[in-house]
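User: I want to check something. If I give you two sequences, will you return the structure for each one separately, not as a complex?

Assistant: Yes, each is folded on its own. Here is the first sequence with its structure:
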Amino acid sequence: MFTGIIEEIGTVAAVKPGRKSAELTVECRVVLEDVKLGDSICVNGICLTVTSLGSREFTADVMPETMRRTNLGSLKKGEKVNLERALSLGARLGGHIVSGHIDGTGEISAREEDENAIWLTIAAGSDILKYIVLKGSVALDGTSLTVAYEDENCFKVSLIPLTQGFTTLGSKKTGEKVNIECDVLGKYVEKLVLYGKESKDCKKKDLSIDFLRENGFA
């Protein structure tokens, strides 16, 4: 489990592709301080297991499912990635609960400067947007952010200077892909609402506030 508060920007040292999978090696410093083999590190929002360790790098295996659902397949040597170690008990939860399990990718369709902030517009499919809630939380490339706008085609987030400088999002350009993890709460609510003897009929309906009221959830 993670918080979406990036600890360090790492550098891709090597990508060893398989037929459908890959082996990823990342150069870093901070996240290696108390990590051991088998621990989890969130790389661009993706929970990966450390399979080997060096003094300034770690290696992780990337399975085919992860390659299909994320932007890891496009990473090249020298590219920068957001890194976060797993949340430890007793630590402050500065962002929101992030599992490191990516729901899909979106595309940066617009970038706009607003004094000290940068607005990013993310175009995504309905399978992602149905979980995006105004003023709710979303993780982009592992970074915990607040949704400032949403409609049927896209959503927007605003990056403060610290986020711009301390994550890779500040240097992202229009057309680039980002990994998206929606707030896990919405997914559990949807599952509970749709589960049961009426699930077949419910799946044909859109999840709405009226539907939640009808079923005693609002």
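And separately, the second sequence with its own structure:
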Amino acid sequence: MSDGARRNQVIGIGLVNLATLTWATNMTLGRWLRDDIGPITLAASRFVVAAAILAVLLQRRPPAERRLGRDRRWLVGMALSGVVVFGPMLYLGLRHTTAVSATLITGFGPLITGLLAAPLIQEPMTRRQVGGAIVGLAGLVILITGSAAASWQGMGVNAGDLIVVGAVILWSLYSVLGRRVTRRRSTLSATAWSAFLGLPLLLVAAVVEVQVVPVDLRPELLAAIVYIGVVPTVVGVSSWNEGVRRLGSSGAMVFYNTLPLYGTLLGYLFLGETIGPAHLVGGVLIVGGGLWAARR
């Protein structure tokens, strides 16, 4: 490997790890803010900040990318799945489960993406991906049922974990639709338009939610909203896309599984969350299945 290729690889690895680290901080903050702001209002506030930044960046793109064009149906699908429903569902799940559990569950995301990509955009799964999906699913079952036994004394599965599973499925759908859209336009354009189309619905829902779940407006909350809107949403996504460009999708996806590791560490350090046997066993299977599936 030449020095230039090695340098490109090192930069790519650094970028995708930066992305997963910022996304882990989003999960940690979502759990920390659970009593200060409703899940819909937090998601809407996040995308208000992100949409403002994306609008400025989009002005530098070619005119074709500043229009909806023929991709409007796919962009609406991205808006509904990844903006309108995913964010509120993720933050709702974080009100009822720990950041440690939630971030471990996200490790199943790449495998769900592979399952959805086959019928939607004709990207068939390999045998290795199928095997990884089975291993990851086993880890997910252990994590959810083990967490429930510890926190609910065996009364049933943890509702928060199931909500986060639904959020991960929606994010996987958003990712698959994004692959379809970015065949004809840049990732920046696809990300920006999905935010623009989904934000009005989020704002209407947030106005209704505020009447039921008041916002505890304080400096720490405002700072956290600005951070979530800028760092995980804009910086994280941009770093990930550039990392994919340098490493390729398969090379970058191997490091996606650092998200559960970063999230577990942040939840333990900053929220004082415990890590039990179900987290360890389930997390190893989820991350291991993802790494196995992503290997070349």
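Because they were folded independently, the notes below concern the second chain alone. Residues 151-155 have pLDDT under 50 and may be disordered. The two ends are 17 Å apart (CA to CA).
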